[in-house]
Amino acid sequence: MGKAIAIRLKETLPLFQKVGAEILRLRKAEALTQGALAQKIGVTQQEISRVEKGDNCSLSTLHRIARALEHDIEILFKEKKL
Fold first, then answer.
1. What is the pLDDT of residues 16-56, one digit of tens each?
2. Helix axes 45-53, 59-68, angle to 10 degrees
3. What is the pTM of this model?
4. DSSP 29-50
């Protein structure tokens, strides 16, 4: 893998940032800590932190997070109406 490709893979994409921000909003609305959410889905608190910051993660992880927050995964990707 070339150096330029490796650097691009480490960049946070706007979609991941949006999804992470929505997870953060939903988690806080449920008054859950990162640790409590992590425990509900079987990952570490650090993994939840990375996801909320916009780091890449699997669709499986996003699905488990959405279900733990009692939402369908689609809510993480919907555009907000102004």
1. 999 999 999 999 999 999 999 999 999 999 999 999 999 98
2. 100
3. 0.81
4. HTT--HHHHHHHHTS-HHHHHH
Per-domain boundaries in the chain: 3-76
Residue 79 tokens read as 């555009």
User: Which one, of 57, 56, 51, 59, lies nearest residue 27 by Cα?
Assistant: 51
Q: Are 22 and 30 in contact (CB under 8 A)?
A: no
Sign of dihedral through CA atoms 15, 18, 54, 58? negative
Domain 3-76: which topology? 434 Repressor (Amino-terminal Domain) (1.10.260)
